[in-house]
Input
Amino acid sequence: MITIGIDSGSLATKGVVLGDDKKILGSAIDLTGGRSRKSGERVYHQVLDRAGLSEQDVAFVVTTGYGRDNLPFSGKNVTEITCHAAGVHFLFPDVATILDIGGQDSKVIRIGNGGRVENFIMNDKCAAGTGRFLEVIAKALEVRLEDLGAISQQTDKNVEISSMCTVFAETEVVSLVAEDTPVPEIVRGVHNVIVERGEILLGKIGLVEPVAMSGGVALNIGVVKALEKRLGLELRIAENPQLTGALGAAVIARNLMEKR
Output
């Protein structure tokens, strides 16, 4: 029983193939761009190729994310909240709280028995505290987005970024650069903005351990360490946290087929 999950996100599209033995047979990540349907189809065929499969081998496909309604091969579309809960529960069955920070939104999900969603809160009205926020700051600092985490580890000092608004924070960062403020200190200050946003969301739901972190920002070691220090706990993070939603979609697809 082979199933596929496709997470059509605002910035990236992710796909996962789940095999008969509940092992991941293939995965792919590609930029969504301006056409979610085209990127979804591209990732769908990429994961099939990487798993050495054809469309005829697939029992069911579940899609999630912003573009989930726009994919012709979808058997069912499911909210990203439900898929992230299913994906994290599949990887870490004991996790009770999920902090997901994606490209353009962040959310906290409380899950119960079997990965069932008990409560959640989402910030999708402002880019502050998301991957897009870090992308803007990296551009202002003229460094690569994927290097921010390593750069932040070059110092134990940080400057305070007073604004949580992406536009104003960018202006603040440009001013700090003009004042010859060390880049690692600026990056640590920016990471603290992410941490503060995450802490606010967690506070509204109520933090129950163990806690997992998913989404592309979980690849940033600086943000992860800052969060762990602020929260006083160790975060559970998958090998590739960007794939959590797609994995959850594949798990849900399998569950649907088993019920049938």
